[in-house]
Every structure is written in C-alpha cells, then in structure tokens.
C-alpha cells in the first residue's frame, strides 16, 4: 500500500499544489487532500489555534484536523522565503510548530525548511531532503523534482493566460468572467480569494452581477515587480509586494471601476498594505475602494449588503456623475 501524505487545502495549496502533488506522486506517494472548507472545518481550526492567529492560519489548523487520522505523514513545510532577497509572512515559518503544539496525536510532520532568500539557496536540495523519506533512488528524486517544476510552470502559464488558480486546481469553470459594464480589481491573498467558503464566494457574486474581476494572480510578475520597485522602500514581503504592486498597476488602468481589498483579521501585512493601497488610491485617482475584513465571525448577509451597496454606488456614479465624486 502506498504511503499517504496529507496536504491541507489551505494557505499555499493555492500556489504550489501542482508542484507538490507531482513530486510526491512521481515517488509513488499517495496524496490526500483535506476536504473543501466548511463551517465545521473552520470552527475546529478556531478551537485548536491560538486566538492571536490570523483567519487563514486558524483555518489551516482545521484542515490539519480534517486530515490527521487519514494519513501517514502531514506536509507542512517551514516556508521562510520563496524569492531571492524576500521573505514571506513569519507565520509560515512557525506553522509546523504551531500545528504540532496545538493539536495532539498528529502523524509525523514533514516540516523541511524552504528558504530561497539567498542566491546560494538550492530548491533541489530541499526537495531531495523530502524525497529521501520515500525513496533511496536519487535519480528518481531528481526526475520527480524536474517534473514537479515543469508542472508548476504549466500551472503558472495557464493562470497568466487568464484562468483563476481554483479553476485549474479543481478542474472547474468559475462562472463567466466576461466583459461586463464594470471591471473590479479584487486584491487579497490567494488563500482568501479562492477559498469559496472563506471568501463567501465573492468571485461568483461579482460575476453574477456581470462584473469582470481581475485578481493579482492574473497579472504578470514583471509588471508587479516594476510597480513595486517604484515605491520609496523595498517591499521585502513577497505576498505584500504582489498585493501592492498589483493594486498600483491596476490603478493606472483606465478600465478599473473599483478596487476591493479583502483582508484577513489579524494579518499584519494586510493591515499595512491595505492602508498603503487606500492612500495611493485616494491620492491618485479616487476610484471607489472597499475594504472587506474577514474573520471567523463574518456574516454573509452583511457582506452581501455592503457589496451590493458598493456596486450600486459605482454604477450610479458612472451614470450620473461621469465618475466624478460629488463629495470631493
Ligand atoms: S500573510 Fe497575513 S493572512 Fe497570510 S498567514 Fe501571514 S498573517 Fe496570515
């Protein structure tokens, strides 16, 4: 029987799952993915996580609980950096420890460090460390690694061609992202936007209103980098850079009618980046900006009302004010 490795359908699942899945499966390891987020999974996560954590980290704990009795190993890499000269949020570094100390009775956790900050870092060594748990054949590990990178590149290519990550990961079509009368930029972490439960399916809500939605993932990395480089100081958080660089780029596009920033309660990066975004928007263009804060208590009815009001306001302004605010 194949060894089973559990991968939580949370956090960087939305970024790197094709690579991880290919690597493990090439080594004849069976991947078990946690179920899609439900209220029960979220509640379990909240119950087993420290109060101070952000919503996505609490949810991650729920996905671990969903997997823990079904697998031989859990895959929770210790992610420090995914790009040279940059870091990702410190919560990712501590994630394996948080999980191990908060939840009892876990199977062994694969918590290999991934740190690409230095030019000398070598991703293959990291994969080799993981691969050695399942195979003593170094050629097989290298082949699995090469295929995994190729699969990840394919995934990224499809996203740049205009498909949302969740469409590729779950092989489904997200309802009609076609040209409508409005185009909205939806800025937020990939694990918030594409988790249907956590985001309260905001993508579909917007599409059903005939709105085209652009998310940071659909933009080219070079454009994001270019815009981030215009900031007076280097943005050394990879995900913060992506969010801010995207917002700055989209702000310069005439076609954007409004920006929604989806932030997680308890996220330091979001608190900082959303505020910077709002200031830049107010200074530059004054296009409608909506800050949607998500936490475990977010009520869907309240979000729907605010979203509808935001869209109505944009349409009203377009119709009656030639998009010039009547209030300054
Ligand atoms: S970036 Fe923010 S939302 Fe993501 S894990 Fe870190 S604190 Fe949580």
Describe, in plain words, how this protein is organized in 3D.
With 328 residues, the chain is an alpha/beta fold. It has two domains: 4-160, Rossmann fold (3-Layer(aba) Sandwich), CATH 3.40.50; 165-320, Rossmann fold, CATH 3.40.50. 48% of the residues lie in helices and 13% in strands. The protein has 13 helices and ten strands. The strands form three sheets. A four-stranded parallel beta sheet has the order 2-1-3-5, with helices on one face. The chain has a four-stranded parallel beta sheet with strand order 8-7-9-10, with helices on both faces. α1 links the parallel β1 and β2. α1 runs antiparallel to α6 and α5 packs across α6. The longest helix has 23 residues, at 138-160. The protein is globular and about 70 Å long. The termini are far apart. Iron/sulfur cluster binds at residues 54, 56-57, 89, 91, 189, 239, 264, 267-270.
- Figure out the total of helices: 13
DSSP strand (E) fraction? 5-15%
| Rg, alpha carbons | 20 Å
Shape: globular
- Ligands (ions, cofactors included): iron/sulfur cluster
Annotated CATH topology of the largest domain: Rossmann fold
Structural class: alpha/beta
Integer tally of domains: 2
Mean pLDDT: 89
The number of E-state strands comes to 10
Largest sheet, strands/sense/barrel? 4 strands, parallel
Series of H and E elements: EHEHHEEHEEHHHEHHEHHEHEH
Architecture of the largest domain, according to CATH?
3-Layer(aba) Sandwich
| Spans of at least 5 consecutive residues with low confidence | none
End-to-end span in angstroms?
Answer: 68 Å
Strand order of the largest sheet: 2-1-3-5
Q: Would you state the CATH class of the largest domain?
A: Alpha Beta
Measured as a percent range, the helix fraction is 40-55%
């Amino acid at each position: 029987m194949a060894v089973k490795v559990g991968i939580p359908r949370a956090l960087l699942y939305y970024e790197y799952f094709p690579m991880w899945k290919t690597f493990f499966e090439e080594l004849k390891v069976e991947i078990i993915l946690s179920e899609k987020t439900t209220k029960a999974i979220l509640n379990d996560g909240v119950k087993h996580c420290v109060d101070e954590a952000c919503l996505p980290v609490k949810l991650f704990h729920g996905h671990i609980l969903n997997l823990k009795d079904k697998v031989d190993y859990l895959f929770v890499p210790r992610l420090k950096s995914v790009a040279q000269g940059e870091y990702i949020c410190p919560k990712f570094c501590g994630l394996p420890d948080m999980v191990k100390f908060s939840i009892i009775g876990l199977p062994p956790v694969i918590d290999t460090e991934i740190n690409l900050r230095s030019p000398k870092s070598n991703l293959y060594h990291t994969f080799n460390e993981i691969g050695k748990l399942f195979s003593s054949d170094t050629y097989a590990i290298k082949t699995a690694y090469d295929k995994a990178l190729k699969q990840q590149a394919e995934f990224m290519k499809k996203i740049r061609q205009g498909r949302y990550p969740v469409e590729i990961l779950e092989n489904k079509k997200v309802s009609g992202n076609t040209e409508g009368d409005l185009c909205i930029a939806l800025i937020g972490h990939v694990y918030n936007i594409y988790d249907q439960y956590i985001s309260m399916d905001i993508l579909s809500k917007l599409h059903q209103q005939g709105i085209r939605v652009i998310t940071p993932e659909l933009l080219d990395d070079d454009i994001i980098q270019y815009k981030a480089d215009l900031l007076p100081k280097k943005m050394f958080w990879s995900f913060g850079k992506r969010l801010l660089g995207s917002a700055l780029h989209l702000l310069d596009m005439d076609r954007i009618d409004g920006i929604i920033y989806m932030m997680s309660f308890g996220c330091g990066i979001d608190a900082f980046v959303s505020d910077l975004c709002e200031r830049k928007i107010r200074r530059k263009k004054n296009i409608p900006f909506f800050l949607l804060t998500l936490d475990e208590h977010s009520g869907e009815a309240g979000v729907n009302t605010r979203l509808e009001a935001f869209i109505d306001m944009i349409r009203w302004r377009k119709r009656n004010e030639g998009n010039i605010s009547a209030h300054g």
